[in-house]
């Protein structure tokens, strides 16, 4: 199996997991959905855009994204109060 097909199958699995969590709620469910979103972004950046072969670029793209997702989770946590 080539790398693009493997990346596509990973994205399908992560999307299915996200859809399975969509009907539930709560603080940790929100964290799980955002974690799955980060995993999908990493798969796209590393697999389709081939950033895993470019030294430093995958981390440089993931760091702001992860910080943004952590901020979103914090706002979501505050909204549950």
Automatic annotation (TrEMBL):
<dbReference type="GO" id="GO:0005886">
    <property type="term" value="C:plasma membrane"/>
</dbReference>
<feature type="transmembrane region" description="Helical">
    <location>
        <begin position="58"/>
        <end position="78"/>
    </location>
</feature>
<keyword id="KW-1003">Cell membrane</keyword>
<dbReference type="Pfam" id="PF03626">
    <property type="entry name" value="COX4_pro"/>
</dbReference>
<keyword id="KW-0472">Membrane</keyword>
<keyword id="KW-0812">Transmembrane</keyword>
<protein>
    <recommendedName>
        <fullName>Cytochrome C oxidase subunit IV</fullName>
    </recommendedName>
</protein>
<keyword id="KW-1133">Transmembrane helix</keyword>
<dbReference type="InterPro" id="IPR005171">
    <property type="entry name" value="Cyt_c_oxidase_su4_prok"/>
</dbReference>
